[in-house]
């Protein structure tokens, strides 16, 4: 089984990925944030480093997906290869932070990679309002995220909603996280697990 958790910055993807991995005894595949050599530079100078950052993420996630399928294990993945290509890269391009030439190069690379991979068996999308995202981002206090603007988060949210609306790679579960606290409240986590269980039974 290959499940993936998608959502905007601060939606709770990594936390939920870890909690679900523990519950189902699956292997979590987390986003490579700590070792990413471009993140600090990108947040300080987006226009200069946007292409490098996006190619780094694309390479990292393509490698992840190939390993997931090869391993034959039950894996839950924090963020998908599709989010970079449908949300983050086009957003940077639309904001004038990635050139046309770089964006076309990036899209061509993604199209090639996408033709070689399958979508997850189930995609869990964490839907969140902007105030909730801001609260979560401040709570975790990552230095490089201090400069993220409300406008940037709003643009990403709009693109996430558009992508999810047309998502056709497999089964989809949408979870509204604004009123959930799946870390401190076992009932909230339980309600998500119940929905996932219903989807799992539908996969067979």
Explain what the structure shows.
This protein is 58% helix and 12% strand. The longest helix has 26 residues, at 46-71. Strands 2-3-1-4-5 form a five-stranded parallel β-sheet, sandwiched between helices. With 204 residues, the protein is α/β, with parallel strands linked by helices. It has one domain: P-loop containing nucleotide triphosphate hydrolases (Rossmann fold, 3-Layer(aba) Sandwich), CATH 3.40.50. This is Deoxynucleoside kinase. It comes from Mangrovimonas yunxiaonensis. Keywords: ATP-binding, Kinase, Nucleotide-binding, Transferase. Residues 4-198 form the Deoxynucleoside kinase domain. Substrate binds at residues 31, 43, 54, 79, 84, 145.
Mean pLDDT comes to: 91
The total count of strands amounts to 5
As a whole number of angstroms, the C-alpha radius of gyration is: 17 Å
Anisotropy-based shape: globular
Instruction: Report strand %.
Output: 5-15%
CATH superfamily: P-loop containing nucleotide triphosphate hydrolases
Largest sheet: 5 strands, parallel
Euclidean distance between termini CA atoms: 11 Å
Q: Report the CATH topology name.
A: Rossmann fold
The figure for the number of domains is: 1
- The structural class is alpha/beta
What's the architecture in CATH terms?
3-Layer(aba) Sandwich
Spans where pLDDT lies below 50 across 5 or more residues: none
Biggest β-sheet: strands ordered side by side in the sheet:
2-3-1-4-5
Name of the CATH class: Alpha Beta
